[in-house]
Amino acid sequence: QVQLVEFGGGLVQAGGSLRLSCAVSGRTLSISAMGWFRQAPGKERQFVAQINWTGGSTRYANSVKGRFTISRDNAKNTVYLQMNSLKPEDTAVYYCAAGSDSGYWGSWGQGTQVTVSS
Fold this sequence. Notes:
The protein is built from no helices and 11 strands. By secondary structure, it is mostly beta strands.
């Protein structure tokens, strides 16, 4: 099994920045991709970004492209989401997920709240 713990959420003004971290432990050899998702109140969980665990290729949702950057530090077993130029519509609970490049996400963190005030 893979365990995921997110850090770094909080309250920020529009236009500000936050960096989320996701600490990965357990069967990390089973991971081929890491992803970030978010869920706003009353809405479905949506994809934000993903990164290949070994090669580092990335993919982003159109709504965050150019503002968010996903990265990973394999030595520290940690994945990051740098969020710049935040908007009120970015307000959500952000979840880290581990899975495959094909889009199967088998492990999830508990989530961290990000609130962007206008």
